Inverse folding.
């Protein structure tokens, strides 16, 4: 099927600001994004709008996706597909660990505007961002994206390791038979979660674990998965899978002490949920 | 770009760059001054307005994303000279001190009440958890929203004139 | 007493809930420019050169100001109280904290003002910085100011606020136990919901109207006039509506620079700090370092206190000497300690200058004293509330600086708290009053410190 040419290239420019592209469909968004390159992708805008306002980010182009579709949750048998522009509030009624995680991202107002794609692509600054990364890893989600070299569909952890200049279209995963989310509680709704562990039991009984706040982006915990039969041992094993760091909200030392606890709690919860 | 938004029932035409935050358009272009620029990072709630009935941080929303939307602010909560039950509750329960956070709280609480929110303090705190007030310690704010949720009625006849009378009494 | 306990309406409540209150940022004057500051990126550096030409040449930029534009660049906030100025309005030879303003611009809009500050070229030579107040006295410590790392101008040009009362050596000889503690409350940002903001509007007759969020109207007006060397009648201050202050809006942080920009551009100018500036560049409550050693008897009398206070003023004095003076006068908290040796230093570091915040100078020592009382009680195995009642200030007891208390409230306050908490005080303390000490409440060591409340 041939891809229709964009009917009209909508371009606006701010005074000294980026060239603003506002596609009216997914195909137009893909076309305009092209190979990316110095292009800010504005989903909900909760991260980018303040950065663009006074110049802490000055991309050449801004691709605004609010008219491009790409939103919505669809179910095909046991498989869910979630569009990149789906607001986080729309995920609050899905299965754990995704629902549990979403309820700990910012507050209701921000969750109404922030999107799955934006969260997946958020980068750590002085705190771990992108709470859903570890969740999607645990769910075994695959990410469909476009950019240089065309469309790719790959496991979340592979996408995260190689996500420069990619436009996310959607993520999909098989509904788990059980899920759990263990986290360090936030002092405040505006705080990021310093460390969180997601646990999933897939329909074939496999246990998958993902962590957030334990590395440069969400990470899978394969050593802990291998030891999952013994929850405490899995907690200890998880330390081999992570790259802990100091940031504004927690020290590497603190994360080292709490990661095993969270792995154990997530596995305990998973057992109770099953 | 030129676009239309409806602000408190009135259609307004706006000329703004598409990434301009709604807050900036409301305050600097349309002189709708109740939403405040408290942090402009989504972190405080002083700029919260209703976008098609949903509370949103106007500092985070690009104007082009709300083209055609219905925006409500404190200016539209009640006809001139009148107050909504929530506004009356705010006065009765002393929920405003410096007042800078008040507009954002009122809009978030209005949405909470219109969506059938209860008078339960924990539920209110969950719904409004992102709003920051540095004066009250929040208790009076929770009391005010609770009272409005219950539909309490308030005797606000002790107006500023009443205050002056009382203070005069103190002086004597 | 018709007001206490009565339900009084707030005079401003109606306006607050109905979008009627006009804060400084809500003032609308056509043609208003936006101001931005270029701030130091270094904790400590020498300024080699400042080149504003590129910013001045930008279209839409209407004024750029540096130290050269200020008549009196160094003016102390409390010069009137004998505290000499040490802080430049705009940095000239050195920057001494990260965020210190070096230059400011006024431009057609906020984004352009940001770009104009970026176009100003400043060459710095970085210097070692002092960030830990405990290292300020080391021989090899980085020097914050050429005269040293602590404020040298207390009365009589003393380098500290000093208190000597009674016979401290005898108190420590007579003690059964010496109880020591170190207390280090951290800096706190006030975080008013309204950031620092002002608008300045030139009037045709040459007067400038300053819309200010200050907590201290006439004080701020005096500070602006002093920097400009103007009579007060060339300024009209409009204030009184402040979106939270808590002490953080007494420093005249914006008014003078904005007025300079309005003078130079002949246009109205608004300067509203970002939340980031508020966190990183606005003054905070000071961090304090307090060391206490108390001479204590087994039965719970505090005979004497030795105390060392290092007040981390940040890079400049501002109100710190005043804060440390209050701190010194309150350094026994709500209790009577007859023999004292107190040394309090205003120490400079390459941190943000500190300022007032709710009980300026006193909250720090209250925290230290109350925590120390608990420590003494634990050491003695004594009930901490009894310990407090025993040593509570009473009528005729004297403060650290020798003032007889005329209305001490420690006793009734602790009784009220005990009642509210359901804690039953021993009979002696239940019936105790604030009346002058006598009998078992007046041991020999408290006789000499007694004063006459009539002398207050």
């Amino acid at each position: 099927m041939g891809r229709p040419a964009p009917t009209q290239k909508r371009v606006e420019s701010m005074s000294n600001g980026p060239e603003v592209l506002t596609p009216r469909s997914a195909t137009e968004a893909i076309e305009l994004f092209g190979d990316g390159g110095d292009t800010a992708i504005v989903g909900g805008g909760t991260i980018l709008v303040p950065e663009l306002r006074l110049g802490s980010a000055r991309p050449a182009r801004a691709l605004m996706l609010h008219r491009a579709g790409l939103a919505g949750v669809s179910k095909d048998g046991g498989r869910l597909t979630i569009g990149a522009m789906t607001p986080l509030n729309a995920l609050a009624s899905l299965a754990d660990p995704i629902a549990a995680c979403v309820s700990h991202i910012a507050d209701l107002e921000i969750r109404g505007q922030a999107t799955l794609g934006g969260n997946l692509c958020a980068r750590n600054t002085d705190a771990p961002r992108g709470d859903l990364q570890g969740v999607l890893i645990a769910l075994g989600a695959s990410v469909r994206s476009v950019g240089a070299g065309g469309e790719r569909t790959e496991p979340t952890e592979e996408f995260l390791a190689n996500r420069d200049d990619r436009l996310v279209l959607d993520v999909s995963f098989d509904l788990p038979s059980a899920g759990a989310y263990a986290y360090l509680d936030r002092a405040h709704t505006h705080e990021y979660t310093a460390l969180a562990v997601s646990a999933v039991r897939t329909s074939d009984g496999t246990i998958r674990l993902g962590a957030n706040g334990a590395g440069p982006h969400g990470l899978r915990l394969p050593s802990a998965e291998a030891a999952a039969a013994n929850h405490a041992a899995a907690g200890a094993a998880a330390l081999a899978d992570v790259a802990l760091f100091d940031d504004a909200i927690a020290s590497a030392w603190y994360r080292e002490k709490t990661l095993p606890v969270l792995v154990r709690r997530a596995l305990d919860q998973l057992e109770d949920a099953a | 770009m030129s676009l239309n938004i409806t602000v408190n029932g009135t259609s307004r035409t706006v000329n703004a760059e598409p990434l301009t935050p709604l807050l900036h358009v409301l305050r600097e272009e349309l002189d709708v001054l109740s939403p405040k620029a408290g942090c402009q990072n989504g972190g405080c709630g002083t700029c919260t307005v209703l976008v098609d009935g949903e509370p949103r941080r106007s500092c985070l929303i690009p104007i082009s994303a709300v083209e055609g939307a219905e925006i409500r602010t404190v200016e539209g909560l009640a006809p001139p000279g009148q107050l909504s039950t929530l506004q009356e509750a705010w006065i009765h329960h002393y929920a405003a001190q410096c007042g800078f956070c008040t507009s954002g709280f009122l809009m978030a609480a209005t949405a909470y009440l219109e969506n059938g929110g209860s008078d339960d303090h924990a539920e209110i705190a969950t719904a409004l958890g992102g709003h920051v007030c540095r004066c009250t310690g929040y208790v009076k704010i929770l009391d005010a929203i609770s009272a409005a949720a219950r539909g309490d009625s308030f005797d606000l006849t002790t107006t500023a004139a009443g205050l002056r009378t009382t203070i005069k009494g103190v002086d004597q | 007493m018709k007001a206490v306990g009565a339900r009084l309406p707030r005079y401003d409540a109606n306006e607050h809930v109905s979008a009627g209150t006009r804060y400084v940022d809500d003032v609308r004057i056509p043609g208003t420019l936006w101001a931005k500051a270029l701030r130091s990126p270094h904790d400590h550096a020498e300024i080699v050169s400042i080149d504003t030409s590129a910013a001045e040449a930008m279209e839409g930029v209407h004024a750029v100001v540096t130290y050269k534009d200020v008549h009196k660049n160094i003016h102390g906030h409390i010069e009137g109280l004998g505290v000499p100025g040490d802080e430049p309005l705009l940095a000239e030879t050195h920057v001494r904290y990260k965020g210190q303003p070096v230059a400011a611009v006024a431009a057609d809009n906020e984004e352009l003002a940001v770009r104009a500050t970026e176009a100003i070229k400043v060459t710095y030579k970085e210097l070692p910085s002092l960030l830990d107040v405990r290292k300020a006295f080391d021989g090899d410590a980085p020097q914050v100011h050429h005269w040293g790392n602590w404020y040298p101008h207390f009365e009589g040009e003393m380098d500290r606020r000093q208190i000597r009362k009674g016979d401290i050596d005898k108190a420590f000889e007579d003690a059964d136990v010496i109880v020591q503690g170190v207390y280090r409350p951290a800096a706190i940002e006030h975080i008013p919901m309204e950031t620092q903001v002002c608008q300045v509007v030139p009037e045709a007759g040459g007067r400038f109207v300053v819309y200010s969020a200050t907590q201290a109207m006439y004080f701020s007006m005096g500070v602006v006039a002093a920097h400009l060397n103007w009579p007060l009648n060339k300024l009209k201050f409009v204030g009184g509506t402040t979106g939270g202050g808590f002490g953080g809006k007494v420093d005249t942080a914006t008014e003078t620079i904005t007025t300079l920009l309005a003078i130079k551009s002949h246009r109205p100018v608004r300067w509203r700090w970002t939340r980031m500036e508020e966190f990183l560049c606005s003054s905070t409550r000071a961090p304090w370092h307090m060391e206490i050693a108390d001479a204590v008897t087994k039965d719970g009398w505090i005979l004497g206190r030795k105390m060392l206070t290092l007040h981390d003023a940040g890079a400049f004095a501002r109100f710190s000497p005043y804060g440390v003076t209050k701190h010194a006068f309150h350094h026994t908290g709500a209790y009577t300690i007859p023999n004292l040796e107190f040394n309090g230093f205003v120490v400079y570091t390459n941190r943000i200058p500190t300022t007032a915040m709710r009980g300026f100078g006193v909250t720090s020592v209250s925290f230290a004293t109350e925590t120390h009382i608990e420590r003494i009680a634990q050491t003695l195995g004594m009930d901490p509330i009894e310990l407090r009642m025993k040593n509570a200030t009473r009528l005729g007891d004297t403060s650290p600086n020798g003032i007889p208390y005329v209305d001490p409230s420690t006793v009734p306050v602790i009784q009220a708290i005990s009642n509210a908490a359901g804690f039953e005080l021993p009979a002696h303390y239940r019936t105790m009053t604030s009346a002058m000490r006598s009998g078992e409440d007046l041991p020999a060591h408290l006789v000499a410190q007694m004063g006459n409340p009539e002398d207050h």
